[in-house]
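Input for the complex:
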Amino acid sequence: MCLAIPAKVTRVESSGDGTVDYIGSEVRTNFALLPGVKPGDWVIIHAGFAISKLSRKEARETLKLIKEIERYENGA
Amino acid sequence: MPNKKATMSLLEKIRKTTRVLGRPIRLMEVCGTHTMAIHKYGLKSQLEEARVETVSGPGCPVCITPDSIHEAAIELVTGREGTILATFGDMTRVPTRKGSLQTAVPAPGSLVKIVYSPEEGLEAARRARDKDVVLFGAGFETTIPGIAFTTRRAREEKVRNFSVLTAFWLIPPAIKAILESGECAVDGFLYPGHVSVIIGEKPYAFIPAKYGIPGAIAGFEPEDILKGVLSVLGQIRTRRPRVANEYSRVVKPEGNPIALALMKEMLEPWDAYWRGLGTIPQSGLRLRKKFAALDAAARYGLKTGGRGREARGCRCGEVLRGVARPTDCRHFGKVCNPGFPLGPCMVSYEGACLVQYTYSRTLR
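Predicted:
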């Protein structure tokens, strides 16, 4: 249940609602717990809420690890 | 193995350290997502070869929620007309004496709705004003702030047909209970990465200070986990226990202050009952009295107290305390399997039994 994955912010409304790009899918996300988040920022999402910011480099690091794992699991 | 070079080099360092220590080391991971990652990436056997045993702790919120609360949810949706019970997917499959939310037959006009986010529960309440929507929210510190936010929002927007059945659990008091019981001897802890995103490093400080036990906050990729293990081994070797943060790219030392303030505003601690661990002082959170109108237990007179009665022979409680391994249970993989789970540890994708069954069935 505490699975949480990096995603790129694509839209933030004044209400705190918005969307992220999560490995190519648009997912509705709430940003109320992370004020000041802007489109283009990287965040960690858990159960529809952004809970932590990541630097671009840090997000890439995690996504790189995830992609390597996928490649490995697909037998490449 | 992903990024083979890095993980192999970390494993080699781990092997060298345990050789210096000259004894096997036992670490507890207090997070179901860690349990899953350790098995899924094949680290379990690699670590065992390096003389590091990992034991699962009470890291699965679906699992530690006692039957009494699951049964209250089932009673609500079967006994009350026009009720939408919104909950996370895993919660619907937990078997109780009253069946599960998936086998329950809802009352006329009632239904069970699986949601990914608490906000979807509120949205359902906005759309169906003639129904009562109850969000059955179980979770640790990672999940609680989102549910608290949605609950406050329902109040602000005056969505009066929305309430929450809370099953909110706090990790540090549970670790304290495990240490106080003295049942499970561990040399160190891997602290849950995403719980720590919210609470930061400080709430674990009593563990090295009072009990002299090392620990590290760790992420969920193979390298993250091995870095955490190596940090704990280093602390054992130097006899300098502390709270190391090996997931600092995500976890800030102070946690998430907005989420912490929101939890404090909406919720109060209480002596909650955990499956397997019993009643632990100040280990649960519930809505403060002034939010009673949003509290489904108060609003619908639900009996959520106590333990409920668990399936005979199910050792889920012992697994959650770290005193039994899934394979110690005579039902494991036989009468208890993912198709017919006897207890929640075989239901949740973070449950120690399901993880063991899925990834490491041959391991003893």
